[in-house]
Amino acid sequence: MKNKKVVLDRYPEALPVADVMSVQEEEARVPGDGEIQVAVDYLSIDAWIGTTLSPGWLHTLIPEGATVPALGVGKVLASGSLDFQEGDAVFGPFAAQTVATVPAEGCSVVDTSIAGLSDYLGLLSVTTGLTALFGIRDIGQVKEGDTVVVSAAAGAVGSVAGQMARALGAGKVIGIAGGPEKCAFLTDELGFDAAIDYKSEDVEQRVGELAPEGVSVFFDNVGGEMLDAVLEHIQERARVVICGAISQYADNNDVYGPKRYLRLAERYARMEGYTAFHFADRYAEGMKDIAAWMGEGKLKMREQVEEGIESFPRALEMLFTGGNTGKLLVHTGS
Amino acid sequence: MKNKKVVLDRYPEALPVADVMSVQEEEARVPGDGEIQVAVDYLSIDAWIGTTLSPGWLHTLIPEGATVPALGVGKVLASGSLDFQEGDAVFGPFAAQTVATVPAEGCSVVDTSIAGLSDYLGLLSVTTGLTALFGIRDIGQVKEGDTVVVSAAAGAVGSVAGQMARALGAGKVIGIAGGPEKCAFLTDELGFDAAIDYKSEDVEQRVGELAPEGVSVFFDNVGGEMLDAVLEHIQERARVVICGAISQYADNNDVYGPKRYLRLAERYARMEGYTAFHFADRYAEGMKDIAAWMGEGKLKMREQVEEGIESFPRALEMLFTGGNTGKLLVHTGS
What we know:
Two copies of one chain form a homodimer.
Chain A: E1 2-8, E2 21-27, E3 35-44, H1 47-51, E4 71-79, E5 89-92, E6 99-103, E7 108-109, H2 126-139, E8 147-150, H3 156-167, E9 172-177, H4 180-189, E10 194-197, H5 203-210, E11 215-220, H6 224-231, E12 234-242, H7 263-266, E13 270-273, H8 283-295, E14 303-307, H9 312-320, E15 327-331
Parallel strand pairs in A: 8-9, 8-11, 9-10, 11-12, 12-13, 14-15
Antiparallel strand pairs in A: 1-2, 3-4, 3-6, 3-15, 4-5, 5-7
Helix pairs in contact in A: 2-3, 2-8, 5-6
């Protein structure tokens, strides 16, 4: 059996661009003791992948020539582990390839009777649904009547964070996104109260107009001047949740620091960061909470599916240039 | 009776410099109904005064020609209020002058049997002792064994914050100050475990050497690159307390934003700001706590006293150029 994998040919100069990666074919490896072989169905395109390709970030840099890491879902083809059987639907760090032979530890069987297979890369995944949950609920502490602003709001994490804010009782949910289509998606499909198109509008001015009462919680995935624009409007006791900074991943040594950070002192406010991994002991509990909201129809996830393993490099580039709406997936077609 | 007052002749270009102020003499005004006339003894030199002289900051800009605001202590000369009697020792917003006639509301009688008169501008004042207390205890949440770093540590607020951290059980207290004399003051007189001289040492490197376990709490009064240097070394769940940013008050429109703020996300850490005024309903309780520590000999305050109202402009300039150690006071000699 053949495996097609996406390898890193050379480090990108800044953001990950498609042409630093290429697809190679090899013989799929038979699983050894404690390993499973998986026919990968969907791969999750996440921002953290980009940080494994450029020096200085949170994640360890992968070597040139290595397969690009990614989380995926698929079906077990062969198992060298007692915990997995042929045909099981599984989630795991399969990397960007069509047939993955990986340690069974770190993978998990998923229940496709309660949610679709790809939901385990979206609403029910650590990097999307759980990231949004811990950020908006535990760090942001959204409560009844709060005014919540979400950046990168048409992205996977942002779109869920905004819906969760509403489910937690927020009085007003405002999303910031790029372009009229994404903005319409937020207000028309997801029930956001308002959307700001950062490509054509002055974010600082618009936040002031839409939230004259000030911002209680800002869930930020963008950083840079957008963070400053919202900091200008935070309320007293506001919570600014630093989930990510997609605008700043190009160069870790030249990050734009928020010039308005002294608003925190003026307004007895807080900026707190996290990754979902810091809540690792609460994944199971969090997935239950998300599943309950899904059952009540409170959470929608739009999926943008790119076809074929060959589309992986372009999909990753797209994530950093704002080309996607909702959860970006690669369907390997294996 | 004559009053000598310090007036603002023109706005400074950046930081307050002595020559934008001058001393004028006038007849002291007899107090009207609800007012008191006070012979001002000591004036407190605080950073917030600078922000009333330059546009765009927390405090309202004072008009040119106005008396420069300041907190002071003194004795009541004449009272138009039933709450105050001639001879009472009082604290209040007397402004930079020798004889103040001000509304009685906003002033308070102080008990000089439990602390010296000038302590009410230092350890027991809102802008110094209470600022340190609420910052290090309530925002910083210093607990047993924490590693605490304080910037502007030889200043009034910083020197108290460090001692309070120790009183709260911190395992290691490190101060950052300018020059060998201030550093010796911290370690030899105040019992800090170590001091870093930012004028001759690489702060980022030294914090790493002195606190290889990482920093649990950073109490920051400086901002700028010093904030970044310490952010690089924060522990998981660290609390970065934004009390002030004396390095950044020159130009509100060109504040240095902390480029390392993404360490907050990597380490599930928090940056929180405040002013003592946000804790206004807890002043009495806080003063009791501070008085208790004073009684146990756990808090020392060095006072640097400049003689004469004429020294006020120079003293204010000095605060922004790092010329003082401990609490900077002007003794009006009235």
